[in-house]
Amino acid sequence: MILFLMRMRGILKKEALQILRDPSSIALALVMPLLLLFIFGYGVNLDAEHVPIAIVSDDRGEMAQDLIARFELSPHFELYQVKNELEAESLILSRDVDAIVRLQDDFSSQLLRGEQAPVQLIVNGIDANRARLIQGYVRNIVSNWSRMRQERGEAGAGPPVSVSQRIWFNEGAESRNFMIPGLITLIMTLIGILLTALVIAREWERGTMEAMLVTPLRRVDILLGKIIPYYILGMLGMGMSVVVAVTVFQVPFRGSITALLLLSSLFMLASLGFGLLLSAAIRIQFVAAQISIVAGFLPAFFLSGLIFDLDSTPPVIQIVSHIVPAKYFVTISHTLFMAGDIWSVLLPNGLVLAAMAVIFLGLAYRKISKRLEG
Amino acid sequence: MQALRRILALVIKEFVTILKDPKSRFVIIGPPIIQFFVFGYAATYDLENVRYAVFDESRSVLSRQLLSKVEGAGMFRLSGYLDDDKQLTESINSEEARLVIHIGPEFEKKLRSSQPVEVQVIADGRNPNVALIALGYFGTIVEQFNRELMQQGVVQRDGPALQLVERSWFNGNLRSRWFIVSALGGIISMVVVIILTSLSVSREREFGTFDQLLVAPFTPLEILIGKSLPGIVFGMLDALIFSAGAVYWFSVPFRGTVTALVVALLCFLITIVGVGLLVSSLSMTMQQGLLGSFLFIMPAVTLSGLATPIENMPLWLQRADLINPVQYIIIALRNIFLEGADLSMTWPYLWPLLLIASVTLPLSAWLFRHRAV
Amino acid sequence: MTDAQINDDQGTKADAQEQAILSAECVCKEFAVKGKPPVQALQDISLHALKGRVTGLVGADGAGKTTLIRIAAGLLVPTSGRVTLLGLDSVADSLEIQSRIGYMPQKFGLYQDLTVIENMELYADLQGVPGAERAHRYDRLLSMTDLAKYTKRRAGALSGGMKQKLGLACALIKSPELLLLDEPTVGVDPISRRELWKIVYELVEQDNIGVFVSTAYLDEAERCSYVLVLHQGKLLAEGNPESFTGRMKDRVSLVVPAQADRPRQIYTRLVGSRGIVDATIRSGRVRVVREDTSETQLAAALDGMHAKIEPAEPNFEDAFMALIPQTEGHFQVGRGEGEGAGKMQGSNDDIVVNTRELCKLFGDFQAVKKLSFSVNRGEIFGLLGPNGAGKSTTFRMLCGLLPATSGEISVAGHNLLRSGAKARARLGYMAQQFSLYGQLSTLENLSFFGKVYGLSGKRLKQRINWAFDEFGLGQWRDKAAFALPGGYKQRLAMAAALLHEPDILFLDEPTSGVDPFARREFWLRINSFAEQGVTVVVTTHFMEEAEYCDRMLIMSQGETLAMGTPAEIRDLVRSPQNPRPTMDDAFIGLAEGTVDKASIAAGTAGNEEMAQGDLS
After folding, report:
1. Which of A307, B73, B159, C604 has an alpha carbon 20 to 30 Å from C306's alpha carbon atom?
2. Residue B318 — pLDDT band, cuts 50, 70, 90?
3. Which helix (H) or strand (E) element contains residue B120?
4. Which residues in chain A land under pLDDT 70?
């Protein structure tokens, strides 16, 4: 037992010193996460705010002006007043506006007469997502205005059925609250898979593994000697990211720290297992790095629900996503931050992560060998 | 004349090396194809299969009429019927449903007596984009229902109604896939080119053959040309194949000119090769080369406007993003595919690329010799 | 000529087996190769090593030494047969063996980012050395290896010799019963080599451990109590060193050149001639190993040259060269007209390389300080010195790979700083490790370099054909360069460097890691090229190779220690105690400062005459 502890002390000290003295490890573990947090925090935003929109209307009537005022007041839009349709169209072509709202010249008089008055919306559909959001906002403005008129008794009956909508957990529908917790998953993947995929392969390439193997070192020791330091590093990365998320980006955190620690540990172990498996099986750093990017990082980015909604993807993609550990932690992360400790979500996802951790770590253990021929 | 022969020899050597090395061969073909298909299919903001639950206290003809419209809309998928508020809460909390439609008990009665009625919809905000769009869809469905009610004479129409007429340009069905796939050719070929070129010099340094090149009577310019050409050629090949793939596999329309496409890709690839060589010249080992490429690709792609709009970024970030070559090619590609741009319309996005290249390429050439420690 | 057991006394053998600390029984090892038949690394090896002795495993590159040691260490599993250490099986009991032996792999296997003391602590932890013992063990090891002053230095910043000593210290951290050393002295400077062996002897004497060491340095074989010779996976011969040299009695001569002749000319004449097994230049004479005890064939070969033949005491290297079957075609020195390595132009007085007050600064560190020297046409000029002396930096500046901080360099008549490309077009370069394009075939590599240096069309074809003939590369024409056997890789690199008939050939440690045969052949070639008018500038840390140079420069810490012909430099350390110093001695004397540099200026021209007349 004492000998075991002594061996562990030796290896852990060695690994810690190496990490601290190797600039590329620090770059991956600290600089990259911060970089990603700031890029995503500031740069990635799916919300449509201050959408430039052109309003075409020659109608001086009170109705028209009232409706136009609604657009002006809305935080979603920035108004461009234009004289005519032609000017509006050239603005949309030159990308200076993303949408055109057009009221006919007799809009107000039509309404007063009790006739149907169309409101025409033309949206630039190249960014379909943005277009849909814009449509939604315009629709809301128009229907709210309708209702208000109805309440003031100006109009007759408003629409028969109206919708009262509420958004839970993220009232402002801020995409930042969605992106950043997902990003933390990505950061942990960086450390867990990318960094560790290199560490065992590096020892083989540099020849340090060979000398170490001819000692009483056991396979379990080797594995633990890699898991423990990188687990700590990964958790530190996670901690730092959560702190930045909450303090700098004002992302709410409604779950418990215990749940966070427990579940992120499971995810960390699953990622570490995968990375170490790659590293032990492929003893060449270059190849291990490439495979870790293609099989580890990219799926974590595209197939985890981090940006793109998985339910909307074809079945094949959905099936593949089930073996991506990041998928489960993205779900857990969203719930922990925005909703709280909802165990009906946390438990099943957590169990899958636990199973993955056991499987990957087990395979990694099998692959670690004290013989040169593996 | 001598110079040309030297450059030619170097170019041939580069091509043969890349094609003979199974690792490089793999990098050019394997991952790009996988990425093209996976991301082509996975990258979508169009919603399908949005799970929703129904808490219908009215259980009337009219409520069922409304609900059948929802079911028939295609992008929604019924996950279950709820009986009380507790189930409602649980259903959203556990993510069983992303949307819950709550119809009050007086739904039909009120409607038939020409009173306005409200339907409550609760959306899971954990994915706000999905929430907003799902709510938007639902809103449209309700509008259609309202119109139906009036036509059927169920409700007395009294007073004017506003009618929202919507049209979308360039992308009639609002397929977000076109938006992303049109740009995929540029992005994937960029990754291939950067990895290839960033490894080319650092691999030679690591194996010692770079010294041979430096001792030989090459000028830095000649080495630069020799190292850039294969990257540009393979990148171009990949980009054109994936552009064709976008059109024929994913049915993205191609409304622009082929000239514009080729010239735009050429300018972009020259710039990217410059970046790759710069990374390569600064790295002494292949590992550093890979890490350096990664450090460039991550921010460049994230901030390129590929998945999320540049307009949404804070001003200071937008300004910094001006030196990001990827943003230009993405806009150019989208214009060419979806807006039918020709060369003259694309040019405003190409000269910034050439500007960036005019900095990175000479810098790498200078570094060849001066980083030879 | 190949022998089996030399020591054939059955009784002694049985005793030896009982005391054996390591023994191999019919060990075979095969390595599978994709798409080709498996490589037989070891074939039916049976041997022992005894406690309290140093047992040496000697053989050329690829003989199987490393494979055997790795099997003993438990890193590889034999295909058949078994290896037993300390009475335990190397496969089944590897874990226990590994707690009782020390192992030093060929490539430095310690952590470059960790300090000396941190590396030692790591191994102490891994080997379970009790805390109480550590201080004592560290002290002893640090003083043995002379690393006490460097405990806080990062291992990566140590010199080659110091790294090996550290590796040894870590292997010894737990007083092992057996020490396995895989080529521990490769690439290490002569001083450190001697120190490493001193440590090994101390351990054997004081702690009675057994040492099993492999080496490619034949002179080190003489330091072992027992020698095992491996060749191409088979055990060729074994015995104590005396039994080897005993068989060579009366078969070794020294040929002393007359005053006017250079030993090189005699050497070129003798190599490959009838009855001569091996010829090398040592201390200004040509050392010859004959096929038999008669000197007639030797005398016949020397006909016309004024040279004296003297008998010499055989050493292990002689025995080894006589033992190994020569399978490769003997290189014949080309004497014909037509295609050659260089253009015969200009006279021997032309200066092809000239430096004046050359300096190189890396930040604050002065790597090269005011170096001035010149090289004449047709000379073989050597740059010698330990690692860190500045010779590699100087060399790289001469080739145009590194810009000089100050001073002038001119190469082939062009100022390197101003018309670099023109200068570089006239030189050929061969790097330390094989640095041609591994993926390309022999032909493709040659075509590339030919074109790059301005050859084309018919001329290019002519030169490539010359290269195939001269270097025997024709059979490997379309083979990928990385698949070539080691010796042929070297030849390809040299061919590529000479394709364009350069004025100067720059060779950077061309023979490190190369086995004795390839080394001899290499120097033969270089010699013949020099005869054809090619100037050669070479760096090496093999001191005996300095003998092949016409003139040399020995550097230390960026400055010139000594410059002159081999004879002149050897004379600097000549003393009554050491009347016939070797180059090794000269280097050590100069580096340790026991010789006054002023002796150079005092004029050494007359000393050569003295050396020849001195026979005691």
Report:
1. C604
2. confident
3. strand B117-124
4. 114, 154-158, 374
Beta C276-282 vs C234-239: how paired, if at all? unpaired
Three-state SS at B250: coil
pLDDT at C188 exceeding the cut of 70:
yes
Least confident of B23-27, B309-313, C102-106, C409-413: B23-27
Considering only alpha carbons, which residue of chain B is nearest residue C421? B217
Q: Give residue C248's pLDDT.
A: 85
The conformational region for residue B198 under phi > 0 = left, psi -120 to 50 = alpha, else beta, is alpha
pTM comes to 0.81
Nearest to B56 by CA among B18, B101, B6: B101
Integer distance in angstroms from the first to the last C-alpha of chain A? 27
Distance from CA of A217 to the nearest CA of C (A): 6
| Residue C414, amino acid | H
B243, C122, C383 from A249: Cα distances, Å: 38, 43, 63
User: C425: which chain B residues are within 8 Å (Cβ-Cβ)?
Assistant: 217
> Alpha-carbon distance C134 to A11, whole Å?
17
Candidates C34, C362, C424, C452: best to mutate against B (most CBs of B within 10 A) is: C452
Rounded CA gap, C192 and C162, in Å? 7
DSSP, res A195: I
Interface ipTM = 0.83
Does residue C3 register a pLDDT over 80?
A: no
Query: Per the CB < 8 Å rule, is C436 touching B12?
Result: no
Mean pLDDT on B320-331? 91
N residues, chain A = 374
Residues 6+ apart with CB under 8 A from A17: C111, C113, C114, C118
Phi-psi region of B208 (alpha: psi -120 to 50; beta: other; left: phi over 0): left
Closest CA to B358 of B319, B323, B329: B323
Residue located via tokens 């194809």? B33
Cα B107 → chain centroid: 44
Residue C381 confidence (pLDDT): 92
Token couple for B338: 């979806």
Letter string b/e over residues B102-119, b meaning 16 or more CB atoms within 10 A of that residue's CB: bbbeebbebbeeeeebeb
Which residues, in sequence order, are bridge partners of residue A341?
A: none
CB atoms within 10 A of CB A9: 14
Q: Any chain C CB within 8 A of the CB of A1?
A: no
Which chains does chain C touch, 3 or more C-beta pairs < 8 A?
A: A, B
Domain residue extents for chain A: 7-44+175-367, 51-151
> Is C121:C160 a contact under the CB 8 Å cutoff?
no
DSSP string over A106-167:
THHHHHHHT--EEEEEEEETTSHHHHHHHHHHHHHHHHHHHHHHHHHTSSS---SEEEEEEE
What are the tokens at B243?
Answer: 């552009």
- Let me know: does C451 contact C499? Beta carbons within 8 Å: no
> What number is the average pLDDT over the span C433-458?
87
For chains B and C, what is the number of CB pairs under 8 angstroms?
A: 77
How many residue pairs bridge chain A and chain C with CB atoms within 8 Å of each other? 95
The answer to whether A101 and A72 have CB atoms below 8 angstroms apart is no
* Tens-digit pLDDT profile for residues C241-294: 999 888 888 888 888 887 766 777 788 788 777 788 888 888 778 888 888 888
Inter-residue contact C515 to C216 (CB < 8 Å) = yes
Selection from C539, C258, C264 nearest residue C378 by Cα: C264
Domains detected in chain B: 50-174 (3.40.1710.10), 177-370 (no CATH)
Whether C452 contacts B223, CB under 8 Å: no
Burial class (CB in 10 A: 0-12, 13-18, 19+), C17: exposed
Residue C197, SS3? Answer: helix
Homologous superfamily in CATH for domain A51-151: abc type-2 transporter like domain (3.40.1710.10)
